[in-house]
Every structure is written in C-alpha cells, then in structure tokens.
UniProtKB/TrEMBL annotation, chains A, B, C, D:
FMN binds at R127, F128, S129, G288, K303, P304, A305, S306, S307, R330. GO terms for biological process: amino acid biosynthetic process; aromatic amino acid family biosynthetic process; chorismate biosynthetic process. GO terms for molecular function: chorismate synthase activity; FMN binding. Its cofactor is FMNH2. This is Chorismate synthase. InterPro entries: Chorismate_synth, Chorismate_synth_AroC_sf, Chorismate_synthase_CS. Keywords: Amino-acid biosynthesis, Aromatic amino acid biosynthesis, FAD, Flavoprotein, FMN, Lyase, NADP. Belongs to the chorismate synthase family. NADP(+) binds at R49. This reaction introduces a second double bond into the aromatic ring system.
Amino acid sequence: MLPGSSIGQRLVLTSFGESHGRSIGAVLDGCPAGLEIDEKEIQEMLDLRKPGQNIISTQRKEGDVVEIVSGVFRGFTTGAPITMLIWNADQKSKDYENLKTKLRPGHSDYPAMMKYNQFNDHRGGGRFSGRLTATHVMGGAIARKLLKKTLGIKINSFTTQIGKIKMEKEFNEKMSKLIYKNEVRCPEEKTAKKMRESILDAKKKGDSLGGIIESISTNVPVGLGEPIFSSLESDLSKAIFSIPSVKGIEFGSGFRGSELFGSENNDLYAMKRGKIVTKTNNSGGILGGISNGMPITMRIAFKPASSIAQKQDTVDIKNKKDAILQVKGRHDPCVVPRAAPVVDSLVALTIADHALITGTIKPSL
Amino acid sequence: MLPGSSIGQRLVLTSFGESHGRSIGAVLDGCPAGLEIDEKEIQEMLDLRKPGQNIISTQRKEGDVVEIVSGVFRGFTTGAPITMLIWNADQKSKDYENLKTKLRPGHSDYPAMMKYNQFNDHRGGGRFSGRLTATHVMGGAIARKLLKKTLGIKINSFTTQIGKIKMEKEFNEKMSKLIYKNEVRCPEEKTAKKMRESILDAKKKGDSLGGIIESISTNVPVGLGEPIFSSLESDLSKAIFSIPSVKGIEFGSGFRGSELFGSENNDLYAMKRGKIVTKTNNSGGILGGISNGMPITMRIAFKPASSIAQKQDTVDIKNKKDAILQVKGRHDPCVVPRAAPVVDSLVALTIADHALITGTIKPSL
Amino acid sequence: MLPGSSIGQRLVLTSFGESHGRSIGAVLDGCPAGLEIDEKEIQEMLDLRKPGQNIISTQRKEGDVVEIVSGVFRGFTTGAPITMLIWNADQKSKDYENLKTKLRPGHSDYPAMMKYNQFNDHRGGGRFSGRLTATHVMGGAIARKLLKKTLGIKINSFTTQIGKIKMEKEFNEKMSKLIYKNEVRCPEEKTAKKMRESILDAKKKGDSLGGIIESISTNVPVGLGEPIFSSLESDLSKAIFSIPSVKGIEFGSGFRGSELFGSENNDLYAMKRGKIVTKTNNSGGILGGISNGMPITMRIAFKPASSIAQKQDTVDIKNKKDAILQVKGRHDPCVVPRAAPVVDSLVALTIADHALITGTIKPSL
Amino acid sequence: MLPGSSIGQRLVLTSFGESHGRSIGAVLDGCPAGLEIDEKEIQEMLDLRKPGQNIISTQRKEGDVVEIVSGVFRGFTTGAPITMLIWNADQKSKDYENLKTKLRPGHSDYPAMMKYNQFNDHRGGGRFSGRLTATHVMGGAIARKLLKKTLGIKINSFTTQIGKIKMEKEFNEKMSKLIYKNEVRCPEEKTAKKMRESILDAKKKGDSLGGIIESISTNVPVGLGEPIFSSLESDLSKAIFSIPSVKGIEFGSGFRGSELFGSENNDLYAMKRGKIVTKTNNSGGILGGISNGMPITMRIAFKPASSIAQKQDTVDIKNKKDAILQVKGRHDPCVVPRAAPVVDSLVALTIADHALITGTIKPSL
C-alpha cells in the first residue's frame, strides 16, 4: 500500500519512527473491540526481539519500554486505532551517517542514497534499521492475542538452521516451550549449543552468519485467503519480506517439493475423528491460496548480516573511486534469533487480517 | 487489495473470468499514454502460455484470440484503462464440477468449497483454473513493452530445473533467444532434452513433475521499491504467488546464501566504466527492498501438478467417508514450461508499477 | 483509489472505455455469489439513461446493448468479478477532437489538455464523455438488485427541480412509480410539464438548463458507514461527484438546515411500533457518518450543460489568442433527467459496499 | 479507505485517539523530505481550533500541546512518517457514557451503539468527539506549509454565514488577514459583530446555531485530480464530510448555479497577461474533476450543534420507552468558527495529495 508504511486490508499496521526520531511506534487500526490487552503483554514480546540480552548479539542497549497511547480503555480494546510507541534514547551522537560516503556492502546505503537523492538524508539510515521491526512486534503482539483468544490459533516461529547447522528432528507442538529457553531460539537443545558456538566463532572472526526460521501456525480455520491476488501465500510473503535480511520464503515442501513427483507430493485426504485432514502436509496448509485447516508451515531464509568487521573492497560515492571499508562498532553476527518474534508477529497480523476479511473474527468480541 | 481480483498501486491489473464465463480478460489501468501496442504483440505472449502446442502438455485447445476493447486508439495507448479479453469456447458440456464430491488431493477443491460454502458453486472450479493466468499475460505483455521502450529493461524467465534435472551452466544474456526454442523453455539444449524426456516419462506413468523457474531482469534503474511494506521483494513475491502451483521464491543467493558467511555473501562494490556495480550479485539486485541497478534475479519453486492419473486415497465430502479417486481426462504432467511467460508478465507488471510510483516512467510518453 | 478508474472497498467497480474505444464497460468485483441477474435487468436501467428516447434530449443514437461476459453462470452470480460491456458504434468519423483548439467553456478541455499534455490526446475527449456514466449504471443495476433482494432497500432518485421550477409537494413512496412516467423523471405530473416546456424553450434559444436531483433510500439498516474517513456521507459524495456536471450535494436539511436553530433542526427520537425512529429527518438518515435507520435523503445540484449553441468568447490554445466559439451539433439542453438512474446506481453501489463491509450482506447468498 | 482511520493516496493521514485514551494524534505518511517544520507552527494552527479561548464557545480547557515524535530531524522532514500527538488530560472522571441511555437527538449515540453493539462501548463517545478534528489539523498544518513553500498555494477558509446572517461583500485576498481577528472568523468586521451577538443570544436561550464556511484556494496549478473516481471534487468532499456537523458542500456556483442558464453559468476563457484564465469562476476552479488554475472555491454547510440545553423528547434505549432529555454541561452553541482551521487543513491535505500524485510536488524537496 502506498506510500509504504502500512500493511494490511482490514487490520492495518502503520509503522513510524527512525533511529533519529524521538520514538518508534505503530498504529494498529481495525482491531475488534473487547480484547483484553495491556502493555506488559506487548513488552514481553518486544523483549524477545531486543539485542543485548545475551552474549551472541550486540550489547547495544535499546531501552524499548512500550506505551499504549490510544485505543485501549480500562484494559480492553475499544475498536479504535491502537497506538503504541517506544521512546528512543538520546541520539545526538549518532552523527556518522553524515560522514560515511564509503558504501557498505550488503546494506541499503547505495540504493537508498540514490532513491532519496541526498548524502545526508538521514531517512536512509533511520528507516532501514532492524530496530524498526519492533513496530511489527507491537502490532503483532495484539494480533497474536486476538487469534489465540478468538480461534485458538498458535504460532510458533523458531530457528531451524544457522549457517550449515540444521535441526535434526521435526518440530512438534510439545517443543514449543523450548524455543525461548536458549539464545538462538532453537527448540532442540543439542543443536542450539552448536549454533551458539558457530555464531560466537563467526563473531571472533569478524564475520557473520545467516540462517533459516521455520514458522508453524496451528488451528487455522479453513477458508482464509482471497484469490486471486490476495491469497494467503501472497500476503504472508509480502509481509515477511519486510524484515531486513530476508531473501527467500517457501511454504510446505517448497523448493524440496519441486523435485518430487505428484504422487509423492500430493497430500491425500482422510477422515480423522470426524474431521477432514490430509495425511501429509506438503501444501503447508494452503491450497489454491486458501487455508485448508492443516498447519500453515513456512521456512524463511535470512542472509548473513551485512555488517562484518573484516575489511571489504568498496566504492566511495563522493569521488566514485575504489576504497576500502572497515565497519566500526559492534554488530550482531547473526540476526536470525532476534527475528523469531518478528516472524511470529507478521504471521499473526496477516492471519488476523484475513480472519477479519472473511468475517471469521467479528468486529466486536 | 480487496476483494482480490486486482494487483498493483499505480499500474493496476484487474483480472476477470472463469472457465464457465463467456470470456476471461483483464483491465490494465494506469498505463501511460502514447505507448504503441497492438493485439498481435499481446497474442504472441499469450501463445507462449497456451497448452496444446507441443507434445509434453495437454492437447486441450484453448483458442485464446485476444481482443483489445478499450484504451488503445490508432495503435497507441490513450492513458485510459486498457481492456483485453479472450472468448471461451462453448462450455456447456463442462458440467462435471456438479458431480464431483470426491476431493482432489493438491487442488483447491476442499478449501474453496468450504470458503464459498456450496457444493455446486462453480466459482471454485472456474476461478482457480490455471487458464486464468492468461489474464496476467495480457497485462504483462503491455508492461513488458512499456519497460523495454522507456527504460530498456529486459526480462528473461526460463526453466532452470525440472524434477531433479538442473541446468549446468549459469544463464547469460546471449542465451535468451534460446529460451523458446524448445518446449520446456530451457535455454540449455542438452538439459532441455533430458527434461523433456523426464516429463514424457512421468506422463506415461500417470504422474507429474514440478520444477524451478529462474527470472532475470536487466537494466533496472536504481531506486525502485517503497520501504517498509512495499519493497520490491514484497511486491514481486506477492505477485508471483498468484500463479497456481508456486510454493517458494528466493532472491539472489536465497536459501543457499543463508548457509554462507557474510564475507562470502556480501556483494562488494566496484567502479566499472564510471558506473557503480557489485562484483557479485548475491543480493539479486535488491538491497533494503530497493533495486540497486544490478540484475534482479529470482528462482521460483513449482510443486508437481496435482492432477495425476494414478489412483489416490481421498475423502468424499458428501458423506464424509474415505474414498478412492482417479482423475479422468488428460492433464499437464508439468506446468513449469507454461509458467515462464506468466512469470515474465508478473515481474514486468511489478517493476512497471514501481517505476510509475517513483516517477521514473512518466504518465505520458 | 489510484489510478482513478475504480471505486469501492469491498464491492469495487472498475470503469473502462472511451468514445474512441471499441467498447465501454465495467468490472464489478466483490458481488456475493448466488444473486439472480441477467442482461435484461441491466439493459432496463441502461435504457433509462440513454438519450434519443424523447424529444427533450439529443437524438444521438447510442445503441447500448449490454453483454455480461464474466461472473454470471446459469443466471446467478458466482462471486467472481462480473464484467459487462457495450460495443460502441463505428467511431472513425468522430475525428473532430484533433481539429478543435478553441477551448469550450465549462468543459474539461483545457485542464485535461494541460494534464495530459497533448493537443490530440484523445483521452480527454473520450474519458470525460457523459456516456461513461453508462458503466456506473451497469454496476449499479446489480447493486440495486442485491440491496433489494437481501435487505429490501429501495432507492428512488428523481428530478425535483429544473432551473427555477421546483416540485410543489414532498416526495412519498406512492409517487415512486410516477418517476419514469415522463421524460423529465419528475413524479409530479403538473410540474413535469412546466419543466419540459422550459427545457424545450432553452433548446430553442440555443441555451441550456441545470437542476436538482433528489434521492431517497428507504429501509437502510442502522450502522452502515465507517468513521472517521469512510463515513456514509463521505463515500456517497465521493461517488456522486464522479457524475459530470455535479457541483453540489447536501444531506437531509443540508444548506437550509444551516440556517436553523438546533431546537428546530434536531430530529427527536420516538418509539413507533416497537422501533426507534425520529419524528423528523433533518439528518437525512445519517448521524455521525453512520446510518440511523431513517431514509437516506440527499439533493444533488447539476450545473446547466456546458455545450450551448450560442456564440461564446474563448481562447484558441494553439496561438493563445482570444477567439469566438460556436459549438456545432445537437447537444442535450439538460442532462438532469438522464442522471436519475446514474444517481440511483452510485447510491446503490455505495450502500451495498458498506453493507458488505459491515457484514450485513454476506459474501454468499 | 478501510478500516476508516486513514485518508489520502500518496499523502496519507492516519488519525488515532479518543476522549478516553491517553492521547490523540496523527501519522502523516508520504510527506516529501526536506520541508522545514517545527512544533510551533503546528501548535499555532491547533490553537485556532481550540475552544475556551473566547466567550462564544465553551470554556472547556483542552490543553493540546503538540509533540512531534517521528519523521522530523533537525527541523526538517526526513520523508518518513511524521507522528504528532497531544496528551489528553486525566479523563478518569468522564464516566458518564456508561450511565446515559437516553439518546441524544442529533448525535451519533444511537447508530454508534447499534453499530458497535455495546451500551458501554466507549468507542462511540470517544471517537465521535469534535476533539478528534485536532488530528486533521496536525496533518493539515504540514500540508499547508508544503503547498505554500513548493507551489505558493494559499488556502483561506472563513465563516461566511451564521444562521441567517450572511457576509455582505465577496471575499478578496486582502481580507485574508482579517479572518482570525475576531472570534467568529468572519473577515467582515460589521457582520462578525452581528454573528457574535446571535451566537451569544442562542447560548442564552439554551439553543444553538449552524452556518456556512467558505474556502478559497489560490495559485493551484492546472491538472490536479484523477478522473473518473478520484476527481478533485470527489476527494475534497470525501475529506470535508469527515468533519462532524457538515451536511452539505458545493463548488463554485453550486446550488445557485443549478438555477442558471448555461449562457449565464459558463466561465468564458480569456488571455490575461499571457495566461489563460476565465472571466468568471462559477466552476469553482474545477472542470471535469480537474483543477483549471482558477481559485478553488467551495461552501460547506454546518448544521446547528446538536447539544442544546433545552428539554427534548427522546427515547431511553434501555427500556425502549419515550423519555425526556436535558443535556447537562456547557456546550458550544456554534461549532462553525472552530471549524475554519479544520477546513483549511483538509483542503490542504487533499490538494497536496493530488500534487504528489501528479508529480507536481516531488518526493524530495
């Protein structure tokens, strides 16, 4: 949706804020009235996204105490837009964008400068920061609660792979409480240890790692999604690609399934306790762009973080000459663990949006 | 965009039609005035999508003669909405949807029936047919011409993998004229032969195959994409997932890149003949959601076609009992080759939309 | 909604066509499945709009036989987009737009030329023709039927004033069948005669007249309208101002009410047969932007038609010099009577849109 | 635009807040980067809207100190969303909505209760308050500055009529500085006095008055407006009807023009110092929905305020019985003077939106 700061059709999230501004926040419009919500619940989810809380990410302090400033009365949503915000700490010293003319490889610097046409247009720096994903989490926390309360939908997003280290077993519901028991948000303890080590290792080398987040939503009712162009896959992918560093998404058997035969990949129907289910779930819970009642599963590829300590060849945009860049400061060697609650949030927002579109969730609880 | 039949923000495609209707077609609104276009050019692209033109797909005759019924005057677009349509052949005999209550695995039958709430609601069958992609091609043909004429952008989408058979070499511009020289739309003759054989083989077995389409757009100007939520990756994926059978998308190094180190995946900047380029292109031409001038590359995963001749376990939705299904009729064992022009079209529509949003293309040529 | 050819949020009308194109038509997306509709019903409403059927308007023949080309199966809507079109008669002789550089006062010529930047850009002429309102009627005919069938809503739009000649009595439901009994669409026979004479008189003098259409919708349920910015008055006025020549709109007591005291203008509540009603209806059925159950009443001001036979001072845009213009051809001396079915249509489309938004009308009948 | 709290297409205002919430505010997305703006300028316009600053309106203290919390850096807009808000004073005592079951005539109570389905759903009270128009003024202040700086556009909205008392002379640019010299915002001193007296008189009687605001925008470039459905009149009226109490709008000669002959109402073109102008301006600066360069003029009808001290017949919604209501507290006997800056703001937002759509204003100053 133009101009680009909003997403959704019946449940609309508008994100605002940059590193330089006084605050970052979100307006969530279209949430039904009568949902019990308070700052504590939103804060919990925000805290899962924050860096500086473990040793594998940066020790940058972000503060991030959320305030609800509209749309909630006596602990219940009123149906009017809900505005939440976080105050940024004093930013005056962050003046480096002005001085840096060496393009940082893998970052948005170059295209943003060209698009916005100004060396010292801070919009580039401010609006592309991973910090902005906090706004998605603010709205997502409410959407998640709405889905849980009205439809019993649960969303579990977790780290399934870091670099080449993959989870060994398949996820099941019982593992959900293990996701946040470790820093990497991998519900397989043994694998989480290896992942942690590889991240620390990369950090020592001044390098970075990427990974894959898997997300599974259960109890999704049949019928969500509006073909042709607002199918569930279209809207989920549109939302997920707003997360910096995301470079790929697949649903169900995805790329792996493209190598199978139809006889191997088709999910056969069966009756199970009076309910229509499929024996396998290669469709990832979505057929023809519409949810079919099976868990909605997706895997999201994150490229390795672009800010590395090693020297890199680059160009100085001021004089158009080759140059060497060495990024200063301490940076996250791996953003994947922090993205898990962000994925949860965007999946929740998209599913809730579609549930409102179909009338599965009413405008008033 | 609700209700679901339109996509785009400045260049909007509205798709209409179903198998049962008299026609299928599209309205393209927002195309600048002064673009030279005629039915022949649109027909050429539509013909690339049609089945029945080679032996690896169904011999179903689709007719598909396109007519432009508004928006073009004396061979030039007027700036008003352009409506194009194809008349469906007489459909009266196609009455089987009424009788089929056995759910077809992998198809949209079940969720569509539940969503639209009617056994004999033909909307399900009619609006989910792959035939509907002809409407995307109608609009895409115009968008492609617009991009080529105003910005010199070229889009090449081709089959890079069928089942487990992959192209051996990397694509380069010289190979583009080879794409449509064979039925599988693979620009590597040797591999195309193997692919063709495997498809015929699957067909004999009453089975089906999936594959991967790769798409590369060159000459894309820097600066397209509107963060945060209308980034180029968000809008491209939203469009691509409207193609039936698509189950995954990745940009640049995608899922492979998620296993690399930052030092391996970052694209380093360099000057090349006075222009800023990157030495590698793992970003796929998009950084921070904005085009950076390098080719925009993506790979799209197609699941194997759901209609196979083999018997399949399923459920009869009328009496909620297990049943056996054997899909009659002749079906495409592999939809991937036919999807190449559809991918071209959706990529063109999305890039043109963003070029109009940024003002890179003016409303009047 | 950009780019400008569509209106609506859940029920979306996309209008296409110009004088020069082969056809004019509309795509109506979002209409629920299961509504019985055929070409005859749409034709009836179109015929009410056509000129050349009485002596007070132009004897231009428009043809206007509507075809439904998608979205209807066996006489029922399928829920998919409904496309309707009318083929234009051969337009090749209508080449005069190329030659006219003298600006026609009151027409869109000048701003359209400046906007679209071309003397011979036919878009101006083609897309501003009153003929385009036929597309609103196509969609409106379906919306009207939908409202009548699901909610029993009736919409009556009629000529209440031509020039200075006003209706004497207030409209009541019994008069509805008189609206189309005369050429001016005034349900008061005596007044209609005077109106007719004044129009013929103006025609003889080579001049034109304007007027006022009143529209009354009954049986509208309480609760339609989405504050703050999608209130019922906002959306109704947005739609109505798309009709060429409309220059004003008022709801309920409107401008007259602005001269009253609150004690005179407030509608007092009362119980009437167990239902909450108001004793007067100065609010025009809308309070706080939401329907309150009382009839929705509005009056719409139409300026006198701009094309008059008399000589007029003007400017020749080619050489920027003063000039004299005498518009040739026969033109409608008064467009008001023809606009009645167009007002009906736009009111129906807006109310139906809001009924779908609130869920008062379900997506499937 | 759904869900209802946002308006605009390239320049989007999202309004949030209710009486009960901690704050009311707005997010303005799409404002170009590089515009100099600060809280003081926004505060000035907000103060013009505040009650309690003169004796003809309520002595309710609203506070209303605005803070910009995002989108502005070192005094310049960054191009990212601009969020502004005002903190509400402690609202805990405002609990009366819970207790009032007698419907207030002329208010949104009844339809809002029915729409939102709850007696004690505070959304009704909170979101319909005239106080919410402060959010339109926040965004409008920025839009006004943008228009003035980039295109030299001036907008003057003033009270032209209160009850039956009308301005005697026509407005001209020199009178603009007189608008805010008196409490009623009428630039004709003599008339302003009479208006003031009639308002005080109505107040004594426990009654209220309505009126008409006229708005004139000069220096508007030719070519703004997107036919068919996003014409300038459509979008201006859509925005203006969001102001509580507005019941009518007319452009140019409006309803009066509907009584004229074409020969009287047509604006004849002429050359004036090398520029194309019209000798009269009955079109109100808009032809065919597009601006023609002449001043954009409109008149807006406000009904008399619904809250009056006199006893009124009504219904008690709890027991569906007739009742008598006497509204307590002190209320504005006339909202018209306070609405002038709100009209300014909504006109500015709409014109700026269209200027951005056409590219007349660039995304970066």
